[in-house]
């Protein structure tokens, strides 16, 4: 039985509560993490979903499948949380729905978080996961993905693989990605007012915990500032009321101009990371269907 759809206004109110109670820069990181995890515990997953704990070169991860076991294609998805909070639990619902629709398994790494483990710890963990995975399956069967800060980590990973001359995954999915730590998020006051989840103060606190400001302009930290030529196909999704929407649009423009195959969709009136509410929100279901199409298309099976 499918979970009942929730009215967008109610989902928006719920997102606002998460932002106010969990993503508060005045709270210790441990408190933010605990409160965010409590919110995520109520996220439903489809019946028949399997979640297995499996380390990849020492990096803990959840492996999510919904339906028959699937190894023919794999999506590696990095959760959001400003590099400082969050866990694999945040993306389990999205991963389960994607697994069911795309016939894939979804690996959700528990990469190390700042401020205990600042840059490049998260990127190092991402590379270890990919190294383990690509020792087992061909790159053409793998899609790298991420939401919010996890989207920045996913793009930084693919750029690092490209720059090192390594084989690239078949594609990359970026959901409401945080790609530029140098951008002044107060520059568009109307967008600040419309975003119900994120605040400039919280993003600034996360950025400072993740990396020294002197490193923010480095492509490994702000992958939007990297040369995008040579990237695999990209699927970029965002909402118009997302404080990070300018990053998604800027990447779509720059990457397309550089000859990258880009699919970019922006949903009007939707908030940051709305895509993770698959099964509850009609717009999220639409975004999920597009992601499943992308996964099956770029893996060619």
Q: Would you mind describing this structure in some detail?
A:
The protein is an alpha/beta fold and 301 residues long. Helix content is 38%, strand content 15%. The chain contains nine helices and eight strands. The chain has helices spanning 8-21, 29-40, 92-102, 121-134, 149-163, 189-194, 200-210, 245-257, 282-299, and strands spanning 49-53, 61-66, 74-78, 105-109, 142-147, 171-175, 234-239, 262-267. It has an eight-stranded mixed sheet, sandwiched between helices. Helix 3 (92-102) crosses helix 9 and helix 4 packs across helix 5. The mean pLDDT is 94.
Record keyword descriptors for this entry:
alpha/beta; 38% helix; 301 residues; eight-stranded mixed sheet; 8 strands
Brief summary of the model shown:
This protein is of the alpha/beta class. 38% of the residues lie in helices and 15% in strands. It has helices spanning 8-21, 29-40, 92-102, 121-134, 149-163, 189-194, 200-210, 245-257, 282-299; strands spanning 49-53, 61-66, 74-78, 105-109, 142-147, 171-175, 234-239, 262-267.
């Amino acid at each position: 039985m499918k979970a009942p759809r929730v009215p967008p206004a109610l989902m928006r109110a719920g997102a606002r509560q998460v932002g106010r109670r969990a993503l508060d820069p005045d709270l210790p990181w441990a408190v933010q993490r605990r409160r965010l995890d409590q919110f995520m515990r109520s996220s439903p997953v489809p019946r028949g979903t399997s979640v297995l704990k499996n380390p990849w070169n020492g990096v803990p991860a959840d492996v999510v499948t919904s339906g028959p076991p699937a190894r023919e294609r794999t999506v590696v998805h990095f959760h959001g949380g400003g590099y400082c909070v969050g866990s694999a639990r945040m993306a389990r619902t999205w991963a389960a729905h994607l697994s069911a629709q795309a016939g894939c398994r979804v690996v959700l790494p528990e990469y190390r978080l700042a401020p205990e483990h600042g840059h490049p710890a998260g990127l190092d963990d991402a590379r270890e996961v990919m190294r383990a995975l690509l020792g087992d399956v061909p790159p053409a069967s793998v899609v790298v993905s991420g939401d919010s800060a996890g989207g920045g980590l996913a793009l930084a990973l693919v750029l690092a693989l490209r720059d090192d001359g390594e084989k690239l995954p078949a594609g990359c999915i970026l959901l409401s990605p945080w790609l530029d730590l140098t951008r002044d998020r107060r520059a568009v006051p109307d967008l600040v007012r419309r975003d119900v989840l994120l605040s400039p103060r919280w993003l600034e606190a996360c950025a400072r915990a993740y990396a020294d400001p002197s490193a923010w302009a480095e492509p490994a930290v702000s992958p939007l500032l990297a040369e995008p030529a040579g990237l695999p196909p990209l699927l970029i999704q965002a909402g118009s009321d997302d404080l990070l929407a300018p990053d998604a649009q800027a990447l779509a423009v720059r990457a397309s101009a550089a000859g990258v195959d880009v699919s970019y969709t922006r949903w009007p009136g939707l908030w940051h990371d709305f895509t993770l509410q698959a099964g509850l929100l009609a717009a999220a279901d639409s975004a999920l269907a597009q992601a499943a199409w992308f996964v099956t298309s770029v893996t060619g099976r």
